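P.,

For your records, the input lines for the assembly:
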Amino acid sequence: MSDLQAIRLNVNGVTRAVSVEPSASLADVLRQELRLTALHLGCEHGVCGACNVLLNGRAVRACLTLAVQAEEAEVKTLEGLSAEQIAVTLKECFRKFRALQCGFCTPGILVLAVDLIAANPDPSEEEVRDWLSGNLCRCTGYQPIVGAIIEAAKRLRGAV
Amino acid sequence: MPKDSGIGASSKRREDLRFLTGNGKYTDDVNVAGQSHAVFVRSDLAHGRIESIDVTEAEAAPGVLKVFTAKDFEGVGGVPCGWCVTDKHGEPMQEPKHPVLAEGKVRHVGDPYAVVVAETLDQARNAAELIDADITELPAVVNMKDALKDGATKVHDDLTSNLCYDWGFVEENKGAVDEAIRNAHHVTTLELVNNRLIANPMEPRVAVGEYDPWKDEHTLWTTSQNPHVIRLLMGAFVLGIPEHKLRVIAPDVGGGFGTKIFHYAEEAFCTFAAKALKRPVKWTCTRSEAFMSDAHGRDHVSKIELAMDESGKFLALRTDTYANMGAYLSTFAPSVPTWLHGTLMAGNYITPLIYVNVKAVFTNTVPVDAYRGAGRPEATYQLERVVDKAAREMGIDPVELRRRNFINKDQFPYDTPVAVTYDTGDYHATMDKLLEISDRDGFAARKAESAARGKLRGYGVAHYIEACGIAPSNLVGQLGARAGLYESATVRVNATGSISVMTGSHSHGQGHETSFAQVVADMLGIPEEQIDIIHGDTARTPMGMGTYGSRSIAVGGSAMVRATEKIIAKAKKIASHLMEASESDVEFANGQFTVAGTDKSVAWGDVCLAAYVPHNYPLEDIEPGLEETSFYDPANFTYPSGGYCCEVEVDPDTGKVDVVAFSAADDFGNVINPMIVEGQVHGGVAQGIGQAVLENCVYDENGQLLTGSYMDYAMPRAYDVPMFTVDHSCQTPCTHNPLGVKGCGEAGAIGSPPAIVNAVLDALNDFGIDHIDMPLSPQRVWAAMQDAKSGA
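Structure tokens returned:
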């Protein structure tokens, strides 16, 4: 039952050695072993997106990813994005547009939005809503999140 | 011009700095040295008799500290109910015991009958699989009307039936209401279901219990909207721990929407087990557990009859509601279909005679309690649906029919026939604003444009009232509340002039740390940054009742105003001494104390310092220090109101409803932070769209929960909701609280469902469909269209 596996995880640019159960999710290892608690567990079945992290630059569900699967990959959590321009701009716009209330879903949405803007620097409202529909927010009704992401994309394009 | 700070300013939320960087501290982020992990073992049957529970193998499993069952809780109280409703014969409701762990029977899917505590979560989960419980399945009662039939299986064997109470309001009016309905020119009748919902805050519930044997002190970290209420209920009624030995902390909480008001068995368990095991015990709810253990919301089945004269003037209203309580009474469950529902049946209208009957019913389902709006959405939905149907039957425009019956602004204060007195409002003004911002005049063109794309477009309105700012303690005490409903604030001015405000309110997304600071800053004329708001910890804040019912600014904010007024009064005394002036001549504005008609002044900071370094100080008259506490008990509820408009497009081939536009014109009285208020309306409306179009908690006939995950329970997503147009410029300030505020947290969820359903039925007008029950799923809408086409 307990058959710990020693792996090396590259998280936020630092390689860390951890011993994990083969069945341990990346989310549990990040939160409990590495104490990276920006990501949250909202559903543990891949629906709500609160646990999003970047795996090789793309947003994935840390609750559906096994930690052992992430061994060869570059993992970034919201903590590791603190100095990156897309994330910095997104955070400014989220604050301006009051795109969060309780804050629980916010880290996962920010990670998604980083991926979105990297993939599509000029998203339409419809495209933002389509991407954002992979994340659940129960507080805001989404409108300010949509507005903040569009505004951040604009700023990053130098269009503002 | 918009203000840039203080009351009325859209100050940016200070909370966001930690939330945006992932530095919020939620309960699951709390890890106590030496903590163990609890896993609850829950019934997969809706109803069963527990023959035996063999925990031998589980207790022998690696890492297991102990397996708890009901026998460990002998001598421990049940989870209490905080409200006793008296039935129409004057008898108290039937109130079954709600044990921490199931005793003798399991009564709903998810009812916990054992808990494993182990060194690690995995060990606890693995050991839970080894528990051998022999539970004999019993027939389940799920449907409320079946549950009340003679010979129905009883959820609680020691009760006389599954009827919790049969409530009549106002019972003395019943005869007159019946007669008015019998004799009326026209009576519109509607039967409808207010669908059962699951609140689903994104943060699941968590509890961490810790016990210090050397101080005999308990600490509970929990995801609560009201830590003092949890301390009182759990300490006094369940575990017998006096308040001074029990600290309850609700740190950052990831949304509540009502479902985190209640005291839950898991909180009592973690507190109890931490002492029993001499180890901290942590429990984190999984989402699938949340679906079967968080209190659910709504679940009413109602019949409503509205009697009118020839001109459409309302004469009488009669409603008959079955309200599901679930298997046990959750903390405030009995109050929701009664005092939070019956008292709002007048709506915005003059209806001289009203009678409300509510039968509350036990079933083998999860307990049902308050969810955003709590009773008021159920009242508004019935009323605003029956008014729309009446308009159609009478051939009167639905807006015009509402206007003919509105209480006019010169009729306030207005005594309704259902025991409440509205203080202010201007319903014609909010309706005017609604028609303007929703561009009713342009609807015909939009409808034609939709039709050109093969879509059926509809325009629906609703006008709501709610009672917020709960509540005058003496009144709710008469109505059965087992608690007072005041709020508290301590304003602690520090020696250098900064301020810590301790409030009994709790913020779980509402932004109190920002808006409360705006109130105090405005009163004192000092920067908001100089003020910190402290909440969520019984050891740091005065006894307060917490946050629900849109009460925080109206009741908690008022307590803060009263405490700050005391601060100003004392500071003026100190200032008069420093300036050697008569106290009556001292004026205070913009953080400066001055003496009228002189150039004498002292700054706020000088007075604060003098209070704590009282070298030159009137010690014979006043004490040093500058700290004041106020407990504010409101004189009345507050009555926010507003008009909501929804536009939908219905796909005639599939029945899919798209909400394409939504407008809200609210009267919240004075507004502290417009940005925060708009956010509250958006969120409430999104939840209303969820209820009206998507969400439904479904049990099968055996009591199995069919919607036990996000794969089955449809939450509103970004592509399900439109851009909202919201306006709160119609403001009739509350007359009885010092801020003139009414509260805004629930309005969106109250006013929106009937507006959406009315819009869909407007879109389907050519089909002659009277009603479709929520959620208006493609299947239901399509079936209604087919039935109408085939004349069924």
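Two observations worth noting. Chain B touches chain A through 58 residues (CB under 8 Å). The CA atoms of residues 69 and 114 of chain B lie 5 Å apart.

Regards
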